[in-house]
């Protein structure tokens, strides 16, 4: 009888063990549903955890009335693809964007589609940056038919944008780049009473431009997640453009300290950041940073933000027999903690 050395015996046992091992493939399911409000959504579930969020600088807002929609990881072709954050015009004046988010449930990760509504809802406690720090939104608010921008979290260069203020909300903590809620390593934030109430409000589906941005990203190999940490090719863009040819697109990562505050604010902190006294003026002082005197209104006397939305909406092709949606009733928004005062250039 042939004797086996301890080394040979160990090698044989290892081979036997590996022969009986089967690596479970990633399972993915896609379900198309229609909500009571008429929004058709595609629900994606996968057993593969979403990658960490990249840290990048925000592209400059292209003009008055545009709102920032954060970038996110989308699942497609058996991999994650980065959908660049982008500035878009809302469906109508007064609406705010609640970002989509990944959540762990029933043994898989499920994508919850973002939506437009009168208030910000729950988005998983994900720190997307630029005003979306896990709870609520501190990047701006609607007032008098115009959107007012918080300069401390937005990249404002356009001299036409005069509705600006400063609300510093920096927190001295470490960046949290997790991109999903629940499960192992995910955020543990739960929806507040206000966020639960937002789920019952009328919602509007992502715009055509937002859907174009999503479709282009999933079709671009350069947007595919790489475990090595390289990429994506485009992190964010000022506008939706064919194959991300926007000259204002961000194509390089930022230092880890670029986005602040760096962890989601608690419900109490978010409420405190918004609850500030003071009267909000119809028109802020002109923007002088990185530009000259600002144009206060259009030639027709209509506020610049509202006029921009009307002009671009008029260019969109309307199906026969349809009517333009009436503007949503504007929700009362808490006023900023600090008001920026500037002097117009003479």
Could you characterize the architecture of this molecule?
The protein has 346 residues and is α+β, with helices and mostly antiparallel strands. The chain has one domain (36-315). The chain is built from 5 helices and 17 strands. The strands form 6 sheets. It has a 5-stranded mixed beta sheet with strand order 1-2-9-8-16, with no helix packed on it. Strands 3-6-17 form a 3-stranded mixed beta sheet, covered by helices on one side. A 3-stranded mixed beta sheet has the order 13-14-15. It starts with 5 loop residues before the first helix and ends in a 31-residue tail after the last helix.
Properties at a glance:
disordered N terminus; single chain; five-stranded mixed β-sheet; 19% strand; 346 residues; disordered C terminus; alpha+beta; 17 strands; three-stranded mixed β-sheet
């Amino acid at each position: 009888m042939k004797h086996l050395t301890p080394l040979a015996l160990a090698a044989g046992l290892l081979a036997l063990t590996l022969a009986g091992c089967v690596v479970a493939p990633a399972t993915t399911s896609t379900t198309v549903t229609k909500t009571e409000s008429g929004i058709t959504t595609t629900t994606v579930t996968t057993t593969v955890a979403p990658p960490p969020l990249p840290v990048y600088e925000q592209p400059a807002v292209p003009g008055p009335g545009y709102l920032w929609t954060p970038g996110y990881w989308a699942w497609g072709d058996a991999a994650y693809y980065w959908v660049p954050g982008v500035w878009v015009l809302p469906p109508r004046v007064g609406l705010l964007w609640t970002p989509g988010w990944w959540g762990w449930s029933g043994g898989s990760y499920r994508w919850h589609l973002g939506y437009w509504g009168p208030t910000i809802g729950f988005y998983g406690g994900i720190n997307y940056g630029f005003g979306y720090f896990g709870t609520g939104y501190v990047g701006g608010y609607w007032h008098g038919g115009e959107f007012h921008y918080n300069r401390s979290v937005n990249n404002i260069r356009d001299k036409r944008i005069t509705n600006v203020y400063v609300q510093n909300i920096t927190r001295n903590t470490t960046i949290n780049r997790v991109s999903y809620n629940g499960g192992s390593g995910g955020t543990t934030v739960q929806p507040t009473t206000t966020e639960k109430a937002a789920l019952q409000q009328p919602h509007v589906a992502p715009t055509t431009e937002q859907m174009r941005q999503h479709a282009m990203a999933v079709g671009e190999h350069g947007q595919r997640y790489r475990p090595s940490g390289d990429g994506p090719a485009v992190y964010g863009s000022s506008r939706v453009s064919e194959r991300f040819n926007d000259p204002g697109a961000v194509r390089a990562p930022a230092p880890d300290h670029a986005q602040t505050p760096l962890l989601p604010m608690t419900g109490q902190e978010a409420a405190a950041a918004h609850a500030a006294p003071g009267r909000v003026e119809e028109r802020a002082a002109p923007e002088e940073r990185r530009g000259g005197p600002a144009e206060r209104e259009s030639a027709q006397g209509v506020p610049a933000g509202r006029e921009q939305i009307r002009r671009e909406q008029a260019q969109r092709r309307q199906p026969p027999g349809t009517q333009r949606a009436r503007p949503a009733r504007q929700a009362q928004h808490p006023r900023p903690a600090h008001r920026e005062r500037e002097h117009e250039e003479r």
